Amino acid sequence: MAEHSTSPATQDAPIDPGVSEFGELLAQFVAATPHILGAVLSDGVDDTIDTAHRPQAISALDLCIAGAQIGQAMSRLTIDTIIFGFGRAQVVIESEDQILLSKVLWEQYLFTAVTTTQVNLARVMRNFDETADQLLALLR
């Protein structure tokens, strides 16, 4: 992903809320959770439905790519976890600089978020789950 600022000042940066009610909901998630750089909702063919992000911290394109790249693996993983009785998979991938969270919501609709490593993981997971439930309600 392209390098952007993830300093504390970035947390006060404006949030681009996307273009739909999905983007508005994603923007609420980004605003409510410190150190979230952005979030994306994508569909089963790896197309972006909407994004919300802090443009000073991450580009919309980087978010779209993250959602598309993790989407295929998440779809396969979710099928396996359901078959084996674990329910829908939720994945957290930590790297040196960022954390990626992803979950298949319904059919192949995918919710993905990118954070800094300074994030409070318990808080982000709680907010991620709440937002996932709200997105699922809108999708249905």
Could you explain how this protein is built, in words?
The chain is of the alpha+beta class and 140 residues long. It has one domain: Dynein light chain 2a, cytoplasmic (Beta-Lactamase). The chain contains 3 helices and 5 strands; from the N terminus they run H-E-E-H-E-E-E-H. A 5-stranded antiparallel sheet has the order 2-1-5-4-3, with helices on both faces. The longest helix has 24 residues. The relative contact order is 0.19. The N terminus is likely disordered.
Which oligomeric state applies? Answer: single chain
> For the terminal residues, how far apart are their CA atoms?
32 Å
**Lateral strand order in the biggest sheet:** 2-1-5-4-3
Topology as a string of helices (H) and strands (E): HEEHEEEH
Largest sheet: 5 strands, antiparallel
- In CATH, the architecture is 2-Layer Sandwich
* Low-confidence regions: 1-6
Can you tell me the CATH superfamily?
Dynein light chain 2a, cytoplasmic
Structural class: alpha+beta
The tally of strands reads 5
Overall pLDDT level: 88
Q: Treating each run of at least 4 consecutive H or I residues as one helix, how many helices?
A: 3
Q: What gross morphology would you assign?
A: globular
What is the number of domains?
1
CATH top level assignment: Alpha Beta
Q: Which percent range describes the beta-strand content?
A: 25-35%
CATH structural fold name: Beta-Lactamase
Helix content: 25-40%
What is the alpha-carbon Rg in Å? Answer: 14 Å
